[in-house]
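pinned: reference chain
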Amino acid sequence: MVLERYFLTTMLTAGGIFMEILKAGLEDAAEILELQYRSYQSEAEIYNDYSIQPLTQSLNELKEELKRQLVLKAVVSGKIVGSVRAYQENQVCKIGKLIVHPDHQNAGIGTMLLHAIEQQFGSCRRYELFTGEKSLKNLYLYAKLGFKPYKKAEIDRHLTIIYLEKERKYES
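pinned: its structure tokens
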């Protein structure tokens, strides 16, 4: 189920930058794909593998994701500096491809994008995402935000994926 609501919020990042979080549209695909290529260079370097899916995804494949999933974008001074994708499967929100421009990392943008996804999928009982075992910055961020590992999958001798989950907090 893809949410049709238009999401908009303006906030000040930890780096003191004004940012908007908006629902991305097909017109944003090329800019998000360029950001994705730039953002995943560090992951490719960690694993010495430049054939990872985020670096080989085509513009048409991304446009299909934009049609099937909720894709949020973080915008600073008219430029997309971050993005995240998610969809709901049963009562689980599946989160993918959290990206932040390298020049804007460690300013709270990734955290704010994940919080925005949690708000948009507030009816889900659980949130899931995954990252590589050697992606220590990602694992640190996800742990800080309450995600806990629940499964490992060895893809090959160089890559093990860690699946993480976070239960929704119910307000009393």
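why pinned: The chain is about 30% helix and 35% strand. The first helix runs from residue 29 to 39.
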